[in-house]
Amino acid sequence: MVAITLHDVGVNIPIFDVSRASLKKALLGRAIGGRFAQSGSHLTVSALKNINIEAHDGDRIALVGDNGSGKSTLLRVVSKVYPPTSGTVNVAGAVSPMFDATLGMSMDATGLENIQIAGTIWGMTRTQIKNSVDDIADFTELGDYLKIPVRTYSNGMMLRLAFAIATVRDPEILLIDEIIGVGDSVFFQKATSRMQKLVERSRILMVAAHQDDMLRRLCNKAIWLSHGSLVQFGDIDSVLVAYRGQGVPVPEPAVS
Amino acid sequence: MNVQDVPNQDARPTSTPVVISPATAVLQAEAPTYPIGQTIAAEVIAGFREWRVWAILGWDDIRQRYRRSVLGPFWITLSTGMFILLLGVIYSRLFHTDIAIYIPYLSAGLPLWGFISASINESCLAFQEGSRIMKQIKLPYSVYVLRVVWRNFIVFVHTVVIFIPVAIIFKTTPTWATLLVLPGLFIVCVNVAWLATVLAIISTRYRDILPIVGTCIQIAMFATPIMWPVTALGEDTYIAAINPLYHLIEIVRAPMLGTAPQLLSWLVDGGLAIVGSAFAITLLVSKSRRIVFWV
Question: Which of A12, A83, A106 sits opposite B26 (nearest CB)?
Answer without folding.
Answer: A12
